[in-house]
Specification:
Helix content: 25-40%
InterPro entries: DUF4440, NTF2-like_dom_sf
Radius of gyration: 14 Å
Order of helices and strands: HHEEHEEEE
Structural class: alpha+beta
Number of domains: 1
Protein name: DUF4440 domain-containing protein
Number of strands: 6
Largest sheet: 6 strands, mixed
Strand order of the largest sheet: 2-1-6-5-4-3
Domain DUF4440: 8-113
CATH topology: Nuclear Transport Factor 2, Chain: A
CATH class: Alpha Beta
Distance between the termini: 34 Å
């Protein structure tokens, strides 16, 4: 498997961990110094991100990645894609949000870990 394919596989595992609401599985995909900025401008470190996405009111049902592009440079990689987040809101409404995402991945001890990411803005049905 090429490094680019490894990064995509790691990103899909991270997405599956979100959908499973499994904090330990999600934590294993994230670098200890991980940081994330949400589509709403919220900023999270690894612990805050794991808690918000596995124990919060928003329940992930799935996340798919399309239009995936990966650039690998040594032990670092940038993944750009469009995600479709299938979620159940705190009010029990099931919705899908589409948005561009950029993730920075680093390879450590043979594993690709997400170091940082940014999502958004949300895309509307007809485009941005």
């Amino acid at each position: 498997m090429s490094p680019e394919q490894q990064v995509v596989a790691a990103a899909r595992e991270r997405a599956a961990a979100l959908a499973a609401r499994d904090p330990e599985r999600l934590r294993r995909s994230l670098h200890p110094r991980f940081h994330w900025t949400s589509h709403a401008g919220e900023r999270f470190d690894r612990d805050g991100y794991v808690s918000a996405n596995t124990a919060g009111a928003l329940a992930w049902q799935g996340q798919s990645l399309t239009e995936v592009e990966v650039v690998v440079c040594g032990r670092a990689a940038v993944l750009r894609c469009v995600v479709a987040d299938d979620v159940t809101t705190g009010e029990g409404e099931r919705v899908t949000f589409r948005m561009p995402v950029t993730q920075t991945w680093v390879e450590e001890e043979g594993r690709w870990l997400c170091l940082a990411g940014h999502a958004g803005p949300r895309l509307h049905a007809g485009g941005p």
